[in-house]
Amino acid sequence: xxxxxxxTLMSAMxxxxxFGMSPCLFAAEYNVTASVDFxxxxxxxxPPIDEAGKAMFAWWNDEVGPKLGVKLNRKTYDTRYxxxxxxxxxxxxxxxxxxxxxxxxxxxxxxxxxKRLPQDKVPLIMSTGTYGFIWLPNMWVFQCRPxxxxxxxxxxxxxxxxxxxxxxxxxxxxxxxVSPAYVDGARGIEAFAEAxxxxxxxxxxxxxxxxxxxxxxxxxxSKKKPDFFWNMNNTYQGVGIVKANRELGQNIPVIxxxxxxxxxxxxxxxxxxxxxxxxxxxxxxxxxDMTNPGAVIYNKYKEKLGLKNPWTLMSVxxxxxxxxxxxxxxxxxxxxxxxxxxxxAVYNAFYSGPFTEEELMGLMPTQTFTRNAPFSEKDIKxxxxxxxxxxxxxxxxxxxxxxxxxxxxx
Amino acid sequence: xxxxxxxxxxxxxxxxxxxxxxxAQWACFVAFIIVLFTLPLWAGIRYIAMLNxxxxxxxxxxxxxxxxxxxxxxxxxxxxxxxMGAFVCASMAANxxxxxxxxxxxxGLGAAVFGALFGIPAxxxxxxxxALTTIAAQIIFPLLIMSLPEKLAGGAIGLQIDPARxxxxxxxxDVSLYxxxxxxxxxxxxxxxxxxxxxVGRVFVAIRDNxxxxxxxGINLFYYKTLAFFIGAFYAGVxxxxxxxxxxYVGADQFTIYMSIWFVGMIIVGGLGSVLGAIMGTIFLRMxxxxxxxxxxxxxxxxxxxxxxxxxxxxMNIVLGGVIIVFLVYEPHGLAHRWNILKTNYRVWPFxxx
Lengths: 410, 354
What we know:
heterodimer, A: Rossmann fold, Rossmann fold, 42% helix, B: ABC transporter involved in vitamin B12 uptake, BtuC, two-stranded antiparallel sheet, 3% strand
């Protein structure tokens, strides 16, 4: 009996010590909420976005979280890209889930939440490009990317250094008045051209949201002999310009963004050769290098979790946002401890100094947030890609610096 | 007219026409108002937030009921009128620093004038053609906003405003906004109930039933059709003003044609030609949307192997549309009609009929 009691006590002590050494068993759990849209405008691209989110969260909870004594729960809400639904859902999310950070999807999230976040003390992080209307100081909204105008300026800088060095680059803008975001982008690129002697806007055409044909508009602009067309709106317009070029027997390259870039347009045209010579520019890694640490993690968890979508720029967009979020949370944990994480602690951690490109797995350049703007204004860089001989390649292996862009929103 | 409770009769026309005939009905109404205004004390904040957005929609849909349900004028631009009201309200708040009790009515008037312009064609066209004209309002609205001077309407960047204030009270929380929205909703609904019982309301119904006969009887069709759009758009404008103070940011892309279509769906589900139907339809569809938003992630979590998240979320939309279709098949007159049947059955119970 005495031996049994001693053995039992010893076993119990060993178990207790083992538990004490396994922080994951007593990990503090926190919720990270995210807006998704499976039924609205984002429905087509949502599956790769959602899967990238699942993979990165699984990786962090397996590899990083246990060492810090924290587990992050990812909870998604279908806001349908609608500010009314976001505004209606948010108080419940706030009181029920008590998130330490919310991952937004686009403009509706910002519109619905930006005025109340300082009171709710939960930061919002976005993976999309910044719009002019939120380029404001002291925001609780954090953008992983600068504005689309910055990204365009980066490409134009590369073109100025490598293609057209001896005269102003002539750019023709194709945009749409249907959406304020599109008008904002057009105004921004016009402001950049006004402030930059080596860029000239030769004309602007306003088209429909989903045009059937852009032949007339492209023909009018082509008479002004642009070097590039500019369109960062949607795939319909991007592909429309490319098709119009072919119909006119010319190949004036188009500068696109990530969401309507070469990968997305290739899905629409079903033939990448159609996009030969076109360009896209984005402040993320373009998602064509499978040796990127983020790509390696995603492919590992793709097999483990049975995910279906390959690693693309859409995956990069979300993975980059999530890696930045994780790094911010790690700094917040270091500052306040694993049991005291709050939205305010995460918010303060954003300003704790630069998040280096290595920390961000090469998915983004180094990010340094200040209270002057919702995105990192320091050393903004982009990567640009093109289609060359039917292959989607980067124009440069390195990040391309972005020249100064004046703030066009007063 | 609904059956009166047993033993209730009147000696005056005023008594006969009253909404509440018995003390019990008055007591129920007062209890309802008390419950409505004490809801934040015992309901969760999620429900308060849902009711805030629902209250805004109720005002817009009641306005649409006046235009479409009572006057028979098809209107697929109610969201654009709401947006116009939001921008007028936000512009006056941001540029002139006026208080909300001036900016919201001003927003209503601005929207009313905008709406009346699109009511003018109603004299010559109706049905499908009028619907297309009001869709034009939906298309013109964002272009107009972005063409106006940026200082006036915000242009592409929209307008940001400070929270509504009344003396020391600042309406910047869900609970404080609830009281503001409910107060204004009660006032607007009260006016709507009374409007439809006046001569103007009867003229609207006459126009809906047969506009040619109404004209022969001496009704000025141009004036009253335009007035129907004016009043309906005024309601939408007030809803837009509340929307502006709810988000404290207005952008032209917040007021889409899908919102207008949902408004039409709400008056159809609630019952055309009834203010109560507009309210019931709005509450029903909003609660259905919220229930589906809640069920989607729950299904994904409970049955992760039964399909991707996309399947469940899209499936929820199919359920939403299916419920509306089934409802219209089995109760095409709307929820208000079903409510009246319920009241009548209650009053004649246990007899099946009188």
